[in-house]
Write a structure and sequence with these properties.
Blueprint lengths: L1 H43 L3 H6 L3 H11 L3 H8 L7 E7 L2 E6 L3 E7 L2 E12 L2 E8 L2
Antiparallel strand pairs: 1-2, 2-3, 3-4, 4-5
């Protein structure tokens, strides 16, 4: 009788942990989507400073160095503005991928929230994505 009670408690605890993890994943997914939407909305509105505030620090730095321009100007020249509908969002712990009809973005979680690590990415068969905006 004791072992049956233990199994029920154990199964209940396992179910609670699984449900909690699922809840966290969907919560992260919502935050990732909100960040991606804010990023692409800023680009479409030609608000480079807003888009740059959503970039990961190393991505912003690489963009400025490679273009020899301030981020708020360079991002408007490099990034895709007409991304179309969101197709899929996948969150893997502190990393995420958001696929749109016309672009793919990669995000990472930082202390101050989710930031865009790479955007304007195209798949390359058998290789990593080729991204116009990415960190070093």
């Amino acid at each position: 009788m004791g072992s049956v009670a233990f199994r029920v408690v154990s199964a209940t605890a396992t179910a609670c942990v699984c449900l909690s993890a699922a809840g966290c994943a969907s919560g992260h997914e919502q935050t990732v989507n909100a960040t991606a939407i804010s990023f692409y909305t800023a680009l479409e509105a030609e608000r480079g400073a807003v888009a740059c505030a959503l970039l990961a620090p190393e991505t912003k730095s690489e963009l400025e160095q490679s273009s020899n321009k301030p981020c708020d100007q360079a991002i408007l020249e490099e990034a895709v503005t007409n991304v179309g509908d969101r197709r899929r969002t996948e969150v893997f712990g502190t990393m995420a991928q958001v696929r749109y009809a016309g672009d793919v973005a990669f995000l990472a979680q930082f202390d101050d929230g989710w930031k865009v690590m790479a955007a304007a990415c195209e798949p390359v068969p058998g290789q990593p994505y080729d991204c116009s905006v990415e960190g070093g």
